[in-house]
Structures are given as structure tokens and as C-alpha cells.
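Course assignment 3, question 2. Fill in each field.
Student: A.L.
Task: Predict the tertiary structure for the chain below.
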Amino acid sequence: MKFVNNNEDKEEKKRREAGDGGDGEDVPERGNWTGKLDFLLSCLGYAVGLGNVWRFPYLCFKNGGGAFLVPYFFMLLCIGIPCFLLELSIGQYSARGPVTVYGQMSPMFKGLGIANMVANAFVGLYYNMIIAWTIYYLFASFTSHLPWQDCTNNFNDENCFSIIEYTKCLEQRNTTSDLIYIDRQCSNDPEFFNSIMARKDYWYKHEKEIELENKTKTKVDCYYINTTFCNENATQADIVKPFDLPVGKRDSSSSQYLKKEVLKEAKSIEPSDFGSPDWKLALCLLAAWLVIF
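Answer field:
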């Protein structure tokens, strides 16, 4: 695409209308931007995508928080923006698509345009799948009780942890003593306590990574002595009474909703564990493709 040049020579216009690119080669008539605003919005749509609002905050948090912005803006100024302007300049000057423009620049670069198209095709495939998930969540949220806010669903297991239910349990401790939140319930029933203590290994045994004297790291067994600290030197005898589900054993209700209800993740990638296509996700994926095209 390119801007309409009001000062373009009339002869050049005639050649373009006749399909003559000036070098003896027939060039098909191409559309033009109706204004600078159309061009600006198209550039924004090209540069800003789902990854900017979904993956970037995660990468920023994972790689040092605010400190991550220093190398990010450095690479943005040195590589990101120059490459972006280079792509725009080549496209404006040549008025060709990515498949053919590299071959016109140099025959040895012809495969670069095809590789670009294949890479974009793969990106479109998995991005549409993510958009299908958002459509699924959109329809699932049309209810007064969100299905991922608690652990009362059939697909939730014993390690499910709901922050809403846990907060309510903390508030109830002001009036009721010895309440704990574990096994998807808030209770101080003695029989319930006995059932938890009978399965100490299941509820409180975990693994942690420690650093040895030779600076190597290894995983060892440990027991939680409270909700946050797992002691590698502790044993079952050190747990004298039950307490809340430890942080290392928690699986959030929203995570279980995604894995067990939406994606229906299998235990492995073996063919025997393959399930059948989910019609809800299939319809959402179809809707995503219809919206795109």
C-alpha cells in the first residue's frame, strides 16, 4: 500500500492505469491509503497485538520487573524501530507484498519472502487459538457465578485453592477458632483433622531445590512446617496439628478451570490419551476465524 501523491505526473498515472510499471513489466493496479490516519491505524494494528497486553507483562515480571525495561527499550531503539521503519520503507517504495519484494531486491533473497509468509501463517494459527480461548471465556462469564472463582466444580481436585474461599475462611477465624482451609473446605471438625493427619505425606510432603557446597543444585524431599516454609530436615513427627494447604501444593481454581474444563489437558501426549475435539472450543475457533477474515 502507498499514499496517494497529488503531485504525481499524469503520464505516470496513465502508465499505472494501463498496467505498465515503466520497466516493461505489467504491474496490477493496487489500492491506496485514503489518508494518513488509515496508514497510522494500520501500523498500530500491525505493531500492537495480543502479546503486548498479554505476554509482555508476564515477561517483564519474570525477568526483573522494571529493570527489564532498560534492555527492552535499548533493543527497541537499536533494532525494533529501525527494522519496522525499514519494512515500511521497502513496502512503500516497491508497492509489493513480502513474497515478491525480496526477490525483486535480490534473487537470492526470494526464499526470505516465502519464509516470512510461512512464519506469519504459523503465528496466525496459534494466535487464533488464543483468541478462541478469549471468546470461550467471554461466553462463560455471562453468569452471576463465575465457574473459575471457587473449587466447587466437578473437575476440581483436592489441591484446588480458591482465594475467595480462603479469604472467607480467614474472616471466620475472628469468631471461630482452629479453622483451616484445606481439601477445598474451611473446617475445624476433629474428624476432618484426623483425616488430614492420616495423610501427612500427601498434604505436607514436597520437593525443594537446594544448593550444595560445590555450588550445584539438587532437589530433596521436605515437609511443610507451616503454610510457606518447607523444611528439608523436618519429618512427619514435626507436624503436630493440621494447617492450611501449603503454597507449594496449591493449584488455583482459575488454573484448574483452564486446564481441566477449557483445554481438557491429557496426562501425556501418547495417542492412547488423546481425547475427542471439544465442540465448544471448535465453535469458538470458527468464530475467531470468521472475525479475522
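Instructor remarks: The longest strand covers residues 217-224. Confidence is low (pLDDT under 50) at residues 1-10, 18-22.
Grade: pending
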